[in-house]
Prior knowledge:
Blueprint: H1 3-11, H2 26-36, E1 41-45, E2 48-51, H3 52-70, E3 77-81, H4 86-97, E4 101-104, H5 111-120, E5 123-128, E6 142-145, H6 149-152
Parallel strand pairs: 3-4, 3-5, 5-6
Antiparallel strand pairs: 1-2
Helix pairs in contact: 3-4
Amino acid sequence: LSKGERKQLLNWGVKGADFTTEAASVIDLVEEQVNRSPDQVALVFDHSSWTYRELNRTINQLAQYISAQGEIKAGDAVAVLMDRSDWYAIAMMSILKLGAIYVPIDRSLPPARQEYVIKDCGAKLVLSDFDVPSHLDLSGITCSQLPTTSELTQYPDVNVGLPMVDDAVAFIIY
Length: 174
């Protein structure tokens, strides 16, 4: 960082701003923001943008979808084998909203490493934006392709209603 950038970072938030919140998790923070400013832009990726309302609705629907794929519940590991996109962020938030464990897997890893990570973390589900490569031996693990937007509309857009546990594992990174 340059001296100017360092000074700017150190001075942010020092001017008496109140950062207190009742939020216990990043999910709570997003939902607070949905209530405060639902029509403000929350996420931008390439040429798409999402308001807080749209983002929360889609996160809820994808959480319902993920839960239905393998009876995913709090504490279960869900591997995400996707390219970086707005849907990648939505998948991560959906998994966290379920109280499940988010396990990102880089597509550029060799297949043997991808398979090792999926098995070693005990993933109950692999969520992918494409078909999961057939050369991966994932017998006994549910693999699911990210649903289309129209497929998601079949799922309720309400919160899954699971309480967040403060000391729960949120993610595993290899």
